[in-house]
Design a protein that fits this description.
This is HTH-type transcriptional regulator TtgR. The chain is mostly helical. 72% of the residues lie in helices and 0% in strands. It has ten helices and no strands.
Length: 211
Amino acid sequence: MVRMAEAEHQPTPRGSYAKGVARRQEILDRAIEVFAKRGSDRTSLRAIAEEVGVTHAALTHYFGSLEELLIAVYRESEARDEDWEPTPLDVTPTELLRRWSDANHEVQGLVQLYSSLVASALEEGHPAAREFATERFARVRAEIADRVRHNQATGRIRADVDPMAAAALVIAASDGLQTQWLLDPDAPQDAALALLDQLLSEPASAGRPTV
């Protein structure tokens, strides 16, 4: 008989590992469908397991906690969007926001899920949500800043705009507008994006402060 200490170091059979990965992905696929329709709603892991169609033990085994499940769902849905339609660098940040806005209208539940994760990140006792939000903001700022620099080089964005500051402003606009939309579908998203586009693309006039 293998002693406990030895058993802990035994490699997992490849077949079992592959089945585990496939099962986790199957649960995640179903969870994305559920959250896209209903959002997070801050319900329990047990209630979500029932709606997804798995046991509470299975959901806990693969994701650990409700917060970790929400993060996994959002990351997977975001990765699918990027894989499906990579966005060229010559697309300006405001054009990118319009694409995000149009896509978000189709998956209101995932927009609410993201907003809930960011809200949790600001509270004590949510290290996973804080790590997720902090890492995502830093990554998206860097990606948008690269997009700003590219469009500055082609003359589509003002040369006097600081790329990282513009990226932070774009993210603030995106998150703020989607929060307003969740609360009020009549919030002037298109007009706000048009104004942001104007601020970034028009050349600075004399005495006008830079963004």
